[in-house]
Amino acid sequence: MKVGASGGSEEGRRFKTVATGGTFDHVHAGHKRLLERSFEVGDRVIVGLTSDEFVAKVGKKPDYDYQTREKAIREYIEENFPGRNYVIAKLYDYFGPGIANADVQALVASPETSERLALANKMRADKGFPPLELVTVDWVDAQDGKPISSSRIRRGEIDEDGKVLETEG
């Protein structure tokens, strides 16, 4: 399959609707890979974006508030997947639209998030919805061989592309 700049060819898409999600504090190479894969396999992409309330509940301390994170994700999607069908949904828990929307056919997730699939499918079964398929996207490693993450970026270890930053001391 040839993948173009728009994030995939129509013949490569195999799901009508997929869901993915995260905090997306610093839109880094790992987030970009997750979104690219979502648009490759889905005609419509639901991007779950954690609310400030949920972020606080799980003990994360992002640099940016929900509104700023949403704007950054929207700009990235509009620039890289113009004209594609997507929605950004505010998440108040781990599952959001992936559970509540019977149209969602697959979850596009990192290995860390993919561990929640069994619970998500149990919750969907309780609603009479079909199970989600899983499309796993591996982490993107930084220059030092460790995964890129927003927490590493916040600590000043790496930049959004995974380049190791010089540290003082």
Overview of this protein structure:
34% of the residues lie in helices and 19% in strands. With 169 residues, it is α/β, with parallel strands linked by helices. Strands 3-2-1-4-5 form a five-stranded parallel sheet. It is globular and about 55 Å long. The protein contains seven helices and five strands, in the order βαβααβαβααβα. α1 (29-41) links the parallel β1 and β2. It has helices at residues 29-41, 52-57, 66-80, 97-100, 111-114, 117-126, 150-154; strands at residues 15-22, 42-50, 85-91, 106-109, 133-136. Residues 1-9 have low confidence and may be disordered. The termini are far apart. It has one domain (13-154): Rossmann fold, CATH 3.40.50.
Secondary-structure blueprint:
Blueprint: E1 15-22, H1 29-41, E2 42-50, H2 52-57, H3 66-80, E3 85-91, H4 97-100, E4 106-109, H5 111-114, H6 117-126, E5 133-136, H7 150-154
Parallel strand pairs: 1-2, 1-4, 2-3, 4-5
